[in-house]
Design goal:
Number of helices: 5
Largest sheet: 3 strands, antiparallel
Helix content: 25-40%
Strand order of the largest sheet: 1-3-2
Strand content: 15-25%
Structural class: alpha+beta
Number of domains: 2
Order of helices and strands: HEHHEEHEHEE
Amino acid sequence: MTRTELLDPLLLLGADQQHIVTRAQLRRLGVPSGTIAHRLRPGGPWQRVLPRVIQLQSGRLTPHQRLRAALAYAAPKGRSARPGEVLLTGEAVLAAAGLPSAGHPADLVGVDVLVPGPRRVADRDFVRIHRALGAMPGGFERDDGL
């Protein structure tokens, strides 16, 4: 596999997901663990945002990247969340929807994510996990994928 063959799907995935990916997604694309570690080194082109969540660029996260990273972190380990399996909640969903009363996503201190009750995931950095007491409520998807 040439370097170009490796990077083309990676570039497409990164662009589609606002440059936020999981380690499992990279491994499924055939990116070796050593390459991931090398690119995540201090001063490298990628950065670890949360456990298992990687930003395919350096620099600060945009507000929407923070929301996407929170959803990726709360997803079941090793795979992407299915629609409605993890949901933004609280101010995060209001800000993402663009409601003026919620403020701008950049003003959010934390991102609240609702997960099924039995899921084993904990609060981390800016992500606050909330557990559904019963079935997960119905959610909706925006056109931009959040």
